[in-house]
Amino acid sequence: KDNVVAFDTGPANAPLNDFIKSKGLGEMDRDGALARVGTVDEARLAKLLQHPYLTKPYPKSLDRFDFGASMADGMNAEDGAALLTAFTAAAVGKALDLLPRRPKRLVVSGGGRHNPTIMAMLASRAGVDAVPAEVMGWKGDAVEAECFAFLAVRVLRGLPISFPSTTGVPQPMRGGRLAG
C-alpha cells in the first residue's frame, strides 16, 4: 500500500510577506515582531479558515496566488500580520487533521522557522510541536533543493517520482529527462 502523501498545507509566509511589503515595511515580518504585538481578529480568521481548499482531501496543490495579502485588507500592520500568521498556522493544523495519523512534531524549513511568532502559533493553533529543521540535522534553507535533487536521482535510476497519493496519477510513475 502506498503510504507516501504530499500536498500544500496552506500558503506559508507568502500572504504575510506580501502584506508587509504592501505596507512599505520591508520584505517580511522580521522575527514576527509585528504579529507578536498585533491582535488576531478571530471572527475574520474563522471565515478565512472556511476556505474549501483547507478541507479538500489530498492530493492537492496551491498556486502562489491562491491566498493573498488581501485577506488582511483594511487592517493595520500589526493586526494584519497577526491575522495572516494565525491563518498560516491554523491552515497547517487543518492539513494535519487530514492525515491518517496526526503527527505530534512538525519539522519546519524555509523562512518561517526564523519567525518565533509563527513557530509559537504552530504550537498553539496547529496543536503540534514545531521545531526548526536544524534540530533534525537538516539545513532548513536547503530542504526544497535537496528534495529536487532526491527526485533527480530517482529519475536517473528509473524509479517512480509521482504516486497516486501525491499527485493523483493512476499508478506510480517515473519522471522524464533531466535538463543540462
Short key terms for the protein model shown above:
single chain, 180 residues, mainly alpha, Nucleotidyltransferase, domain 5, 2 domains, two-stranded parallel ribbon, two-stranded antiparallel sheet, 7 helices, 7% strand, globular
Description:
This protein has 180 residues and is mostly helical. It has 2 domains: 14-131, 2-Layer Sandwich (Nucleotidyltransferase, domain 5), CATH 3.30.420.40; 143-174, no CATH class. 40% of the residues lie in helices and 7% in strands. The protein has helices at residues 14-22, 33-37, 42-48, 77-98, 116-126, 143-156, 164-167, and strands spanning 105-108, 129-132, 160-162, 173-174. Helix 5 (116-126) links the parallel strand 1 and strand 2. The model has no long low-confidence stretch (mean pLDDT 95).
